[in-house]
# Entry
Amino acid sequence: DSGVTQTPKHLITATGQRVTLRCSPRSGDLSVYWYQQSLDQGLQFLIQYYNGEERAKGNILERFSAQQFPDLHSELNLSSLELGDSALYFCASSVRTEPTYEQYFGPGTRLTVT
Amino acid sequence: AQSVTQLGSHVSVSEGALVLLRCNYSSSVPPYLFWYVQYPNQGLQLLLKYTSAATLVKGINGFEAEFKKSETSFHLTKPSAHMSDAAEYFCAVTSQGGYQKVTFGTGTKLQVIP
# Structure
């Protein structure tokens, strides 16, 4: 158990819909990262937050957005869903942003768009 | 720009045999390199990381990797495979700029044959 929690574990929804994925980082970790893992694209970095502020964007679509709240939990919002958005979405957290600090990954949310 | 190439999407070894998973990187700046393991239906777990200290890095579960700048390689090894090592392994690279620039390899699934 990494200490990072993600809800829900599974999500099935239809095209065009909007969903919200939730992540609670490890206690004390200020940085949260979102990743997408799909068969087509592999594992890709989406976005990073540090202490409530967006720090970096990766390959995140404009239909996707995220935020980190004052209690440090984070939500990833996916809208106008397409079949290709079906993937595992991971959240990770670390104390700080430097690579010398280990990232801890949550168990993921499996999103299926039908 | 940075990239990672993992040679062999599937590797099979006999229990007790040497495990060798190959990773070559490309980076225009000094890299930080990581190996992660992913067990079925779980998130990624850090095995080990290279952050410009010792070139031979020891990780958890008996794994180690050697950073070879001349060969731009960071291969993962374990002297004796256990059944519990069966999983998918990801090599990743980032720069000192932080995790937001992390690039993952396509993964290698390790099968351990009894």
